[in-house]
Structures are given as C-alpha cells and as structure tokens.
C-alpha cells in the first residue's frame, strides 16, 4: 500500500520530515539526491533519529553514536567509536537493524510503501 507523504519540492537536502501513519513515526529524508524513509526511533537506544546527523548516506544516533545506513538500516560497523567496540559484542550489535521503507516518487509526490 502506498501512502502519500508530501510534494517532493517541499523537501530540503538532509532536513528530516517526520511523518506519522497508523501509530508509526517515520523519518522521510532527501539526502544526496535520494529519498529515504526509516523509523524515527533508534532500534538500539530509542534515540530520536530525526535529530541525528546525516552524512555519507548514513544517520548517526546522538544517544550512543551508532551509525545506520539509510539504504538498508544496517549498522555501519566501520564507523563505530572505539569506546563502543571495546564494550559491545559486535554480533549482538548487528541485530539492531533500523527499519527502512521503500520510497516511491509519482509525478511530483513522494509516497512510502507499507506492507
């Protein structure tokens, strides 16, 4: 099911837009000429990812510094701070995948695909 978010001209690069649908809060983001959609809450620490740092195709949670790829929600383990890698088992950490959604552009409108 496609749900309309807003007109694509209303987005600015790397400025998140929080969209609510059926109890879910989803961040929709134009970043480096691509649209992404993902859950607002960090799957690890429940930090607000709409307030995260967006760079190089990733979002960084400001609570613990975890960085998630915008394209698939996986953790970018190459960019983890040393204090995190010293104190956390990476196999356990890799279980925290950020839920992402397919974004579809139709004419000038942006939609999110829900299962």
Explain what you see.
With 115 residues, the chain is mostly beta strands. It has one domain (2-113): Rieske [2Fe-2S] iron-sulphur domain (Rieske Iron-sulfur Protein). 9% of the residues lie in helices and 40% in strands. It has helices at 82-87, 90-93; strands at residues 2-7, 17-21, 24-31, 34-39, 53-55, 58-60, 67-69, 100-106, 109-113. The strands form two sheets. A six-stranded antiparallel β-sheet has the order 1-9-8-4-3-2, with no helix packed on it. The longest helix is centred in the C-terminal third of the chain and has 6 residues, at 82-87. The mean pLDDT is 90.
Structural class: mainly beta
CATH classification, class level = Mainly Beta
Shape, principal axes of CA atoms: elongated
Q: What is the alpha-carbon Rg in Å?
A: 14 Å
Q: What's the total number of strands?
A: 9
Binned strand content:
35-45%
Number of domains: 1
Per the CATH scheme, the topology name is Rieske Iron-sulfur Protein
Q: Helical segment tally?
A: 2
List the helices and strands and how they pair.
Blueprint: E1 2-7, E2 17-21, E3 24-31, E4 34-39, E5 53-55, E6 58-60, E7 67-69, H1 82-87, H2 90-93, E8 100-106, E9 109-113
Antiparallel strand pairs: 1-9, 2-3, 3-4, 4-8, 5-6, 6-7, 8-9
